[in-house]
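SAMPLE LOG
Freezer: B-3
Tube label: C17
Construct: single chain, 227 aa
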Amino acid sequence: MTDSIRPLLKPQLAHLPRGPHGLAQELVTGSQRQRLLYAMTVVVAEKGYIATTVADVTARAGVSRKTFYALFADKEECFIAAADTSRELMIRWLRSSFAQSAAQSLSPVATLRASVRAYLRLIAEEPEFARAFLLETATAGGRAQEHQDACRSWFAESMRAWRTRLPGHRRVPRAHYIAAADATHEAVCRCLRRGHTAGVPALEDSVLHICLALLGVTDPAEAPGEG
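STRUCTURE (predicted):
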């Protein structure tokens, strides 16, 4: 399995040296921004978006309030930046994982299963990411919800690309792909709301069944045997 997104989302330079350090201003600003984005993710996962304050985020990041407002207009802007960054990292990681599955010469259904498994494992291994950007994005609403919609659209488009490569491909309405993405999202969120993040990978069979059913694909493994 490819590396998880945590080393990418977590700041690479977590603490700046005290006193004169000779670091370029771009590096200092970049470090402060990374720390604030990561702190926003962690605090929102712990307290929820509504209860999270700028003071919570700056305290967790070890960054001054003045620096926060030099980089972000308000809490919402920081949260959206964190959501956008996490989405880009998630998609990059999943694309890499999907490419590995495709290179293994698996059957079409086995390839989709491997992709579903990779996504569910990512959620289970990144509970802070999952709670902050799957559950709390809906609470934040507005511009933050656009992040969630973009993630689902990407998931739906990935399934469409997979479906078009099947032998005997026939057109499936776009609404079916969106429905598969929405159903997957809700199944995962139900686990997260119950605090069962570690149980998300157990959804693999259910999610695969939902996707295949909505896309009109029969899993040979479930086909009745010939008598």
